[in-house]
Amino acid sequence: MNHSAPRLLLAAGAIMALGLTACTSGSSESAAAGATAAGDSGCADVVATAQKDVDAASKSDTLWNGPTTGPKAAAGKTLVYVAQSMTNPGVAGVAKGLQEAAAAIGWNVKVIDGLGTPAGIQSAFSQALTTKPDGIVIGGFDPKTTAAQVAEANAANIPLAAWQALSTPGPSTDPLLFTNITTKVEDVAKISADYVIAKSNGNAGVVIFTDSSIPFAEGKSQMIKKELETCSGIKVLEYDNVPLSDVSARMPQEVSSLLSKHNEAWTYSVAINDVYYENAAAALRAGGVKAGGGPFNVGAGDGDSSALQRIKADEYQAATVPSPLKSEGWQIVDELNRAFNNEPASGYVPQIHVSTKENTTATDAWDPVGYQDAYRTIWGK
């Protein structure tokens, strides 16, 4: 893959359709030379460290390093998964893992879709409370947006386990959560930025896609920006705020505008979620960008199956830092089983991985090897 090859000039039809402005560029040899120079002047150490970290995180067949001991399965529990939006592939992927784990331990799970809006999520959480479940799972939204419902669950002694609800993993006292299951956001942000630094040899023009309305997402994207700026040859061209709820409607025009404004200076993207690239492909194609060419798109989560399929096929995504979605669903069940048995949370934090074309799997998912057997052994199942 030639990361410094110039982008093709826009076709006349694409110009008319998208209102883009084409411009000429230098040779690929001069671009490559620029990348080498950037790596050799002021950024060589950063590039070397980034490459070492990316290589370590890209290893295949990563073994389970989570809990191996805990309480046996509590009997006959019912959980409700309040989903931020089941159109969010990460949220849906965790739901699938949760359902598989519940079947393995002998519990029931109901999924209520919040439809991606504050009002919808509040309504879904209220519906969950009316069913009087044994436990509730907060699926990918900020608990502060449902403060009244969280307080009601706390008052009823219903344990709350969350997935990517807060920026830090583990138990929380404000809001009161038994645990929050997530990779360390600072590690995800750093490795996604390091991928860009390493693969560009320290010479890239980067667009960051974020959702500033979500504190977790805004914090992640600010960390990405900070890490990119540790290399003097990396230029952040745009910090583009596109709310997740608007991605499908806004991304085509956003991409068209960015191509028109930056053209070949735009060589990499980093987004807080892979879903941004699902909605960018048509505009990139219409703008004269060949699949497998720059801008090389990197996801800082969640690594759902559609993202891994795009990466495998070189379809406008180069890499992602996936959450181990299914094993996180299993972890939610294990954590709530600990709550039901009056034991503390496990303290386990899912490991960091980088998925690329070279290490994608036939299942279009990434999870550490052996997690299901480990949890079944703990539960006595």
Walk me through this protein's architecture.
By secondary structure, this protein is α/β, with parallel strands linked by helices. The chain is built from 14 helices and 12 strands. The longest helix has 17 residues, at 89-105. The protein is globular and about 60 Å long. The chain starts with 11 loop residues before the first helix and ends with a helix. This is Sugar ABC transporter substrate-binding protein.
How large, in whole angstroms, is the Cα Rg?
Answer: 22 Å
N-to-C span: 46 Å
Q: Quickly give the CATH architecture of the largest domain.
A: 3-Layer(aba) Sandwich
Q: Indicate how many domains the architecture comprises.
A: 2
> Approximately what portion of the residues adopt beta-strand conformation?
15-25%
Number of strands: 12
**Could you give me the name of the CATH homologous superfamily of the largest domain?**
Response regulator
Number of helices: 14
Oligomer classification: single chain
Q: What ranges have pLDDT less than 50 throughout 5 or more consecutive residues?
A: 1-41
- The CATH topology of the largest domain, please? Rossmann fold
Strand order of the largest sheet: 2-1-3-4-6-5
Helical content band? 40-55%
Q: Give the CA-based shape.
A: globular
H/E topology pattern: HHHEHEHEHEEEHEHEHEHHEHEHEH
Mean pLDDT: 89
Please outline the major beta sheet: 6 strands, mixed
GO molecular function: carbohydrate binding
Domain Periplasmic binding protein: 81-340
Main location: other
Keywords: Signal
